[in-house]
Each structure stands twice: as C-alpha cells, then as structure tokens.
Design goal:
Elements (H helix, E strand, L loop, with lengths): L17 E5 L6 E6 L2 E4 H6 L20 H4 L3 H14 L9 E3 L3 E4 L7 E4 L3 H12 L14 E3 L5 E3 L4 E2 L2 E5 L10 E5 L3 E2 L2 E7 L18 E8 L2 E2 H7 L13 E3 L4 E2 H4 L3 E3 L16 E4 L1 E9 L2 E9 L7 H9 L10 E3 L14 H4 L7 E2 L5 E2 L7 E8 L7 E10 L5
Parallel strand pairs: 6-22, 8-16, 9-26
Antiparallel strand pairs: 1-2, 1-5, 2-3, 3-4, 6-7, 10-11, 12-15, 13-14, 13-22, 14-16, 14-17, 18-19, 20-21, 20-25, 23-24, 25-26
C-alpha cells in the first residue's frame, strides 16, 4: 500500500502516470492520480472519455505497463492530457477510482535498458576528493555526460526492500598493510539521490538524436535511488567500473511525471565553457526546478540529510539521450537513464553518504541519537521531490526503501 502523505504533489497541474492494482482492479493497469485518488484510465476509455482522440489505440490503458502508451506520438499524449485536465475535475465513473491507500503500485514501465550517468560536477569532485584526495574530474567529463550500463532487471518500485549484497572487497579490519580480498556481506552500504529519465517514443538504431530534439522522445521523469556498496565498488571499479556494487537493487518512484507537467518549471541549464559536439548543444532553458530531499529513517525517526536541486546538474536529460544515441545506439521505450548523484556545493546538499561522511571518516548525527557512517540493516531511506516552490501542486511523491540483512549463503 502507498502513503497518502503526498497528496499536495498531485494536483490537477501534475497528472502523473503509473501502474496499479487493487482488490477491485486485480490486474495491474495504467492509472493517473489526483491528490489521493487513483483513477483507472481503462475505465475512462471504455466510458468514452477519449473518443475524440483517433490516434489513441483502444485498450492501451489495460496493459500492465505504460510502454504502449509512452511510445505514442507526443501530440497524442498532449491530447490525452488536455482531456484529463477537464475530466478529472468532473464526476468520474464510480468503478474508475480508488483511494491511494487501497492500491498497490507497480513498476510503471517495462525496462529494457538502464544507463546510469554521472552528470553532477559537484558529485564528481566531492567523490574523487573523498576517495583519491584529488577532485580533478576525469578528462571526458566536460566533453560529454559519462556513464555505465546498469542492470535493468534489478530496478524495483518504491517500497520494495533492498537486501544487503555479498561481494568481493578488501578486508580493512586487518592490520597488515596488504589487505586480503574477502567475499562477504557489504560493510559500507550507501544511497545515491538521482533523477531517472524514461524514454517514450524510441529512437531507431543509426538515427542519432540532437539534444534540442530529445523532448519528443522523453516520456517523463522519476526519482531514482541507486543503492551502492562502496567496499565492493572500490575493488571492482579498477579498471572497468561498477558492476555488482550497484546491480543488486535500484529503486524508482512509481509515478512518472511527464515533461508536460514540468514545462512551466524550466530553468536555464549549465553554460558550457568549452566547445561541445553539436548534437549535445542545448542552449535553451533545458533543466527543471526540482527540489530534492533525502531522509534517513532509523527506528521511525527521520533525519533530513540532503537537500539539493536537479538544475545544478552539469548535463541535462536531453543531453544524456543525445549522447547515448550518438554512436548509433537505439533508445527503446521504457529505457531508464539515471542522472547520477545530484549534489550541491555545500554541506547539507550532498547526494550520497560517500560525500557526506567523506568516505566514512566523519559520522552523521541522526535524530535517534546515534551516529552512522553508512547504512545499517533496518534503516530506511526516503527521497522526495517537489517541482518549483512548495504549493505548486507538482511533485514526485516518495521513493522509499528499507535495507534488509544479507541473505544466508
């Protein structure tokens, strides 16, 4: 079940999309949300709400995934939004609605591919300073948004518990200079605050894409928690990059917030001081004023440990899409592109524990009176996002997960 706490995020100005089921609607299907009411779109379609939209396929909302809907032309999606802006303020069919607490929310899309970028200059510098003592970004960072391909099959909807992974890492409890490599449950579990860009209409192989045209291929955005094992990551990233340190679990918020809902909150993006390739050029207002927050919850007591802004990213979602397609790779409906950790420049705005604790050397004081350097079993991480100023009526709800003990091997 889902908390009704975020009613204010889902005003008529939002109109998000998700997938839900309930006792009265046992098959997962496409829904939207108005405040704390979940609306089953297939019921509205059968009642004729979208009859004037000839380009909207019959039964498209009956599916257990938004993929078929998200793949439609943006002109069709905009027509659906206009209809919903009217219909949702009128009397709805009785069998079309459920209260948020009565439904189960599922993954909103079928995810074929997951690429995780590193678009924050602040995170790049803070992380490298914490680990290497040198905050110089890698040479490619200012030329293109760097990334690695993650594991789509371990992306879970908000509320799904995450199990502490086993892996290989250096045993730093051993006093000898040469630390042995062991296989054991991770000892340094972390979260990473990110945004996820969800591909709508796909881009075929070898077609390429310019950043300025990418909005036609972006269905919307979600909050993304890229759970990370820092000790496993520290050993496996030399020389290839993350694998098992991040492949055990990634959480996303269940409501896709469309670009149409975000349109009024566009702000200028980063001005690049060195020339970049033409397909990455994006001089218009190309970022969104999304205020993000992370709470670390221990024994029911929440501590706000991060507040950052999505517009502080050095590279934006459109540039991520353009870079991935620049070699001729396709973009498929439902693919998720993570922004990488969203970090600001000051304490209180850092987007992961690696930065906040300076690689575990400085503990965090929590509301329950404890001090922690990394996550312990039973800890809960809750991420939220509000677009523009509080009260705008547009938000992402929550992305929440609890860390469970490692499985027995």
């Amino acid at each position: 079940m889902t908390s009704p706490e975020y009613s204010s995020h889902f005003s008529i100005a939002n109109i998000p999309f998700g997938v839900a089921s309930s006792k009265n609607h046992p098959q997962p299907q496409c829904v939207t949300r108005l405040e704390n009411t979940v609306i089953f779109l297939s019921v509205l379609q059968r009642a004729g709400a979208f009859s004037q939209i000839s380009s909207l396929p019959q039964g498209v909302f009956d599916k257990p995934s938004l993929n078929d809907y998200a793949a439609l032309e943006k002109s069709t999606l905009r027509e659906v939004r206009k209809v919903l802006e009217v219909v949702l303020t009128e009397a709805l069919p009785a069998d079309s609605t459920e209260e948020i607490g009565a439904v189960t929310l599922h993954l909103p899309v079928t995810i074929g591919g997951f690429t995780d970028f590193s678009c924050s200059l602040n995170h790049m510098k803070n992380g490298r300073r914490a680990i290497l003592g040198d905050d110089t970004p890698p040479p490619g960072f200012f030329h293109f948004p760097i990334a690695y391909n993650g594991r789509a099959s371990t992306i879970f909807p908000s509320g799904t518990p995450i199990t502490r992974p086993h892996g290989h890492f250096y045993d730093r409890t051993v006093s000898s200079e040469q630390k042995p490599v062991i296989y054991a449950p991770s000892r340094t579990m972390d979260w990473e605050l990110e945004m996820g860009v969800i591909i709508g209409k796909g881009v075929p192989q070898l077609q390429g894409l310019n950043a300025k045209d990418a909005d036609e291929h972006i269905f919307g955005m979600v909050i993304l928690n890229d759970w990370s094992s820092r000790d496993i990551q520290g050993l496996e990233m030399v020389p290839l990059g993350p694998l098992n340190s991040k492949a055990f679990g990634t959480s996303i918020s269940p409501w896709v917030i469309t670009l149409e809902a975000l349109q009024s909150f566009k702000v200028p993006g980063t001005k690049h001081e060195i020339p970049i390739a033409s397909h990455l050029e994006d001089e218009t207002e190309s970022c969104y004023a999304i205020n993000l927050q992370v709470e670390w919850i221990v024994d029911g007591k929440a501590t706000v440990v991060s507040q950052s802004k999505a517009q502080d990213l050095h590279w934006n979602g459109r540039q991520m899409c353009a870079h991935l397609a620049s070699t001729g790779a396709d973009l498929r409906t439902g693919d998720i592109l993570g922004t990488g950790t969203v970090s600001g420049m000051t304490d209180g705005s850092l987007g992961c524990l690696l930065e906040i604790t300076k690689a575990g050397t400085e503990p965090v004081a929590l509301s329950d009176g404890s001090e922690r350097r990394f996550l312990q079993d039973g800890d809960v991480v809750r991420m939220t996002g509000v677009v523009g100023e509080p009260g705008s009526g547009v938000g992402f709800g929550e992305c929440v997960g609890e860390l469970l003990p490692a499985r027995r091997v």
